[in-house]
Amino acid sequence: MSFKETDIINIVVAGTAGQGVISVKRLIEFAAQKAGAERILGSEIFI
User: In this predicted structure, what is the pLDDT of residue 14?
Assistant: First the structure.
């Protein structure tokens, strides 16, 4: 699968309690940085 520079990719990671979701989010952000992504936005929402 290949992506263009202008493509927007949304990833939703859901879980219950603990650090697992936050750790996975940070790994995805790190991988995107290594792949050369210019803008990476991440957030956590606790309900």
Answer: 86
